[in-house]
Design goal:
Elements: H1 6-25, H2 30-51, H3 53-68, H4 71-103, H5 111-120, H6 122-137, H7 142-147, H8 152-155, H9 162-178, H10 181-207, H11 209-223, H12 227-232, H13 234-259, H14 263-280, H15 283-297, H16 302-315, H17 318-334, H18 341-357, H19 364-376, H20 383-386, H21 390-415
The chain binds aspartic acid.
Residues 281-283, 317, 320, 358, 360-365, 394, 397-398, 401 line the site of aspartic acid.
Length: 434
């Protein structure tokens, strides 16, 4: 076990979790045992990752921005980051739309199944509609307004406020660049050290990752709905997964073309973060590990990774946008609606915005999907159709969200000469230590 690379250990933990979950689901009282005695360890694992998300963003971004030493470098990197993020999201939605129009998964849903599902899940659907309504009722500039917190301490009390923390950290970093060096020196070295401590904490948490994902997956399996529902939604789920695979292929291609790094190098480096994204369904919870993998194993310099990745975890959700496009058209097909070309173009715009607005937590993509449905005039009751398979698809789209962020950080790093060689600092023995 000691010699096994981290991603294999995590994969093993996942597999054993699924097997134990399946066995326990068929055992009388097994479900309760998992819920009472195994699930809490999964929760502790996710919590420990989330626990360091905000301190990590603060320390890494302040250090990253102040290391740039010059505001023009910051605006150059910021412009590129946002530009590439939007481009990859538009590519993602387009792939989703093309596939869903070719496969037409909605046509395989019969009238009876549709009525049954709408009936079964109407309660859950309402919950999502309510959260979406709250977001919709605010004015058009509300999202922008929300980026600026009125109190940094209260902003830091919720992981949902990541953009506010990012704003504060970048602002603070800019202040640090602008003051004389003899004054900024101490503050900078404080945040440098703080950042190192947090990264070490990530290493420590990752030692528990195989056990954490075991607990998460075992609990997920005993709590998942019946297999019959999955079957009815098979084509839909397959379309989303196929789209996500195509998107990962696009990333690999982008990395190869822009950074000349081989696909295996990229996948090997990022895989523990991908597996964790799959197990936790949260890009925010995965962020500390994504940062570590990208800097130590993919060679992106810290000042780039610490700027590009926290922003990506919050606004760049390519997997989510692809899923939203497929889900919207699938529901329309299931309700026998024909969407015009211009409506589908509009879906590209709304799904791009909706994915930017989605929080990096489980199920967030579904809340924002309500907005896409609303725009295209597709019945919101259709959410009930996709409910049963949402969690597994959430797991898959989160993997892609995280992979997309890593890809963009490499491209941005390369474009400003900040992509070097891997330099592994932790106990993972994927690469020779230096
Ligand atoms: N779970 C996704 C993430 O955290 C968001 C979503 O699509 O629901 O990246």
């Amino acid at each position: 076990m000691k010699k096994l690379a981290l991603h294999w250990k995590i994969l093993l933990g996942m597999l054993v979790g699924i097997i134990v979950g399946l066995l326990m689901s068929n055992l009388e009282g097994g479900r309760e045992i998992i819920q009472d005695w195994v699930k809490p360890f999964g929760k502790i694992f996710i919590n420990s990752l989330k626990l360091i998300a905000i301190p990590l963003i603060l320390a890494a971004l302040i250090k990253g921005v102040s290391d740039l030493k010059d505001i023009s470098k910051l605006s150059k990197m910021g412009g590129r980051t946002i530009g590439i993020y939007i481009t990859t999201t538009i590519i993602a939605v387009s792939i989703g739309l093309v596939l869903v129009n070719i496969v037409k998964p909605g046509n395989s849903i019969t009238e009876v199944t549709r009525a049954e599902m709408v009936e079964n899940y109407s309660g859950d659907t309402q919950k999502y509609k309510d959260s979406a309504k709250e977001q919709k009722e605010s004015g058009p500039l509300k999202a922008l307004e929300d980026i600026v917190p009125e109190n940094i301490f209260s902003a830091a009390t919720s992981n949902r406020n990541m953009l506010q923390i990012i704003f504060f950290a970048v602002f603070f970093g800019i202040g640090l660049i602008l003051i004389p060096e003899e004054k900024s020196k101490t503050v900078k070295s404080f945040f440098d050290g703080f950042n190192e401590v947090i990264l070490k904490m990530v290493d420590l948490i990752m030692l528990a990752a195989p056990y954490g994902v075991f607990a998460l997956l075992a609990a997920l399996v005993v709590e998942s709905p019946s297999v019959d529902l999955f079957k009815a939604l098979g084509w839909y789920a397959l379309t989303v997964i196929l789209g996500l695979i195509c998107l990962v292929a696009v990333y690999i291609f982008i990395v190869l073309v822009f950074t000349k790094k081989k696909p295996l190098f990229f996948l090997n480096g990022i895989s523990p973060a991908q597996l964790l994204a799959f197990s936790t369904s949260s890009s925010a919870a995965t962020l500390p590990v994504t940062m570590e993998r990208v800097t130590e194993h993919l060679g992106v310099e810290e000042e780039v990774a610490s700027f590009v990745l926290p922003i990506g975890a919050t606004i760049n959700m390519d997997g989510t946008s692809l899923y939203q496009a497929v889900a919207a058209v699938f529901i329309a097909q299931a309700f026998g609606m024909d969407l015009s070309f211009s409506t589908q173009l509009g879906i590209i715009a709304t799904a791009t915005l909706a994915s930017i607005g989605s929080a990096a937590v489980p199920g967030a993509g579904m809340v924002m999907l309500v907005g896409v449905l609303g725009y295209a005039g597709i019945p919101e009751a259709g959410l009930a159709l996709i409910f049963a398979v949402d969690r597994p698809l959430d797991m898959c789209r989160t993997v892609v969200n995280v992979t997309g962020d890593a890809t963009v950080s490499m491209v941005v790093g390369k474009s400003i000469g900040k992509l070097g060689e891997p330099h592994v600092k932790n106990w993972d023995d994927n690469y020779p230590k230096n």
